Amino acid sequence: GFHKCFRTDGSTVELAFDDLGSGISEPCYVVNYGTSLYVVKSSSATVRKLYRYNGTSLEQISNTTENQNSDDNPTLLGYFNNEVYFSATNSDGFMKLYKYDGTKTIQVTDIFPAGNDNPDSLTQVGAYIYFAAQKATGVRKIYRLCDKANPSCLD
Q1: What predicted TM-score, i.e. pTM, was given to this entire model?
Q2: Which of 52, 55, 70, 118 has a CA between 20 and 30 Å from the CA of residue 10?
């Protein structure tokens, strides 16, 4: 069977959303930001995007592949400094780090321009975001996102 997204008020459990009717939804990687829930879900059997759920409706917020019919493959959701961070596939087919600031989604890193950054282990320590990423094939390092106004600046 398919996974579903449920909500509860502590006494009642109900289905939060199942907008496809076909049973395809498969919500995973959930994070809270403000009054909304951010969730990765399938829009078809092979396409996953990041959505915002405000309690009544779903809104797609990622299209990192720049193709509605291509899988963004969003994972690694985290909430830091009023922004949602996630890894996803870009239009070249490479995994990069992205953020959503409440109005737009932008690519944050391009550490390995010729390949996958494969960001993971996203964590916040104080005012900084740390994560592991691939600098070259087989070479992984820890990075610190050091300037919110200049997200490409990595120490």
Answers
A1: 0.80
A2: 52
